[in-house]
Amino acid sequence: MTNASLPAGRFAPGDFRVGQVLSQTWRVFSRNFLTFIIVTGIASLPPILVQQPLPGGSPPADPFQGLGLAFLAILIAVIFNTLAQGILLYGAFEIMRGRPMNLAESAKVGLRRFFPIVGLAIVVSFLVGLAMALLLVPGLMLLTMWFVATPVCVVERAGVFRSMGRSRELTKGHRWKIFGLYLVVLIPALIIGAILGAVIVSGGAAVINSALSSTLGKIANLIWSAVWTAFLAILAVVTYHDLRVAKEGVDTDQIAAVFE
To answer: How many C-beta atoms surround the C-beta of residue 88 within 10 A?
Structure first.
């Protein structure tokens, strides 16, 4: 684990570049990657534990019980992953300001905004999920429009709907770039995750037994999910940062001054 820092980024107003966002995201992520994935890995554990099968591997007698557990797992995942995003957000800003990441301070910031960011996550997840269920394209449009809503909620201390509105304002004019950013990260993540899971499960099945291979597969999925979730959270932070730099002409220290 390392606490190496980055110089604070300052860019010209009006300049929002996909390449800059990706490279800055990677620099922030790579400086404290172990801390980041530990946070998101711990956040991913509760929903996995909730979804564990009954003893003997038998499904629940009542199908509504299984549906209820699935809903509970989704709710817990939203809550814990969103809290992890709040923790990572502050840590990412500290690194961009040229400071070492302080996990205790990051946790304080995340907990301070716990209820607003959880409420935001539930509302956004429901609306995006509903839009995607009805038609894929509107769901993707909403996902892009609200991509930086969580950083807005934490940094600007905005409420649920104000965060969504502010994110809509910041992303306006750059949504195709943001959508491209999301796809650039999502597609390789899905491919790598599928390959990693298949290799570990098939290797475990060939060498030992199906039970162990299933366990290995779950562990691999947990690790990869932690990596992907951490990187995506930092991507949202850097995107928010660069959108404000581009549209408002502020710098990293000015944005993060709210944490002082």
So the answer is: 30
Tens digits of residue pLDDT in 195-219:
776 766 565 555 555 556 666 667 7
Nearest Cα to 229, choosing from 6, 45, 9?
A: 45
Reported as a single tens digit per residue, the pLDDT across 167-178 is: 999 999 999 999
Enumerate residues 6+ apart whose C-beta is below 8 A from 117.
82, 83, 85, 86, 110, 150, 153, 154
Instruction: Say how far apart CA 26 and CA 31 lie, in whole Å.
Output: 8
Q: Would residue 215 count as lying in a domain?
A: yes
Look at residue 4 and tell me if it is in a domain. no
Mean pLDDT over residues 6-13, rounded? 45
For residue 240, what are the domain limits?
18-259
Q: Cα angle at 78 between 73 and 82, to 5 degrees?
A: 145
Domain assignment of residue 6, yes or no: no
* Locus of tokens 């539930």: 122
> Where is 182: in which H helix or E strand?
helix 175-207
Burial class (CB in 10 A: 0-12, 13-18, 19+), 19: exposed
Asked if residues 224 and 196 have their Cβ atoms less than 8 Å apart, the reply is yes
Instruction: Give the pLDDT band (50/70/90) at residue 118.
Output: confident
